[in-house]
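Appendix B, example 12.
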Amino acid sequence: MNRSFITALLLLVGSCCFAQSKNPQYDAELAKKLGADDYGMKTYVMAFLKTGPNRLKDSTARAQLQKAHLENIMRLANEGKLIVAGPFLDDQDIRGIFIFNVSSVEEAKKLTESDPAVKAGSLVMELHPWYGSAGLVEAFRLHKKVEKKSVAD
């Protein structure tokens, strides 16, 4: 009886320790900082940037609008609100994507309304809640380490 009790107690203690994390690389502090759930995931909002109804014909005006669009992207990234952005390389109606570090479509909508290309009607945004790795939050910080030139310059 005594040996059975000790064995059961050891199994219980061992399983409790094991249940906390099966991943030896797990960093609870980092997970908390990034807003990760138990699966290392979190909610973001993904935006598909689509061709808008007002395409500028003048190349100078189009270049100025593109520069303002890129400057807005950098501002949102520096604020930690935008963690992934980039164009698609084919010539289709979906021009690019954003992944916003926000948990609601409403908040992402407010952020997209700050984009000069959206204001001008050159782009429209299609927004979707998205569940992905909380590690994406670190993408911009890592990008700054490999970026020789800014796309906004």
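Residues 59-78 form the longest helix (20 residues). The chain has one domain: 33-146.
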